[in-house]
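Quarterly update from the structural biology core.
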Amino acid sequence: MSSVTDREGVARLTRVVRPTDGAGLMPPPRPTTAKRDQPGSGSTLLPQTGVARLTPRARAAESAVREFRTVMGRFATGVTVVTTVEKDVVHGMTANGFLSVSLRPPLVLVSLGRCRMNEMLPRSGRYGVSVLAHDQQHFAAHFAAQKPSPTEPTFAWQEGLPLLDGALAHLGCRVVDVHRAGDHVLWIGEVEYIDHRDDEPLLFYTGRFGTMRDIADRIDK
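Predicted structure, tokenized:
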């Protein structure tokens, strides 16, 4: 077992500007034309004192990222296609970073990395979530830009939102809050429309799509 919080690296000291009377907690910006550390320059920098900042070694940091991804891959999730529309053009993407946030009011959250959807949602202000069934793996790959689907996706429209036909569940959401978290953006939506049917879900486990039987067979091997 490895620790993600190990702070290996080089401690670098940052210089601190001597505070002036009436100054706040933050030091004033340094003049861009000043020649630092030169005699007669009038520098008010103290000797090497300040806050020690640890910079992890690149190899240790990448190893921690890989281990974190491997561990989180053991958390089996459902698979969704998130959709929005702008100027009559439908855009969809596969996402498993989806969860329920609140019952009163009904809120859900979609976590998105660097993608076009992040650029569109501020303008559209609404998104749909389609929870995929076990026989919709080709759509999961299609909207993840992995492999074009042999079947053209079709949509059911509800209150101006496109929702993927054949999905297990549909949610229509209005964006009510946005939070940046590390390298992702969390889009919180208030649910305005819901629908569902019963069937076997499509799952995502250890970096692969599959049914419950597929996952059980891989574990048995």
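The chain has four helices and 14 strands.
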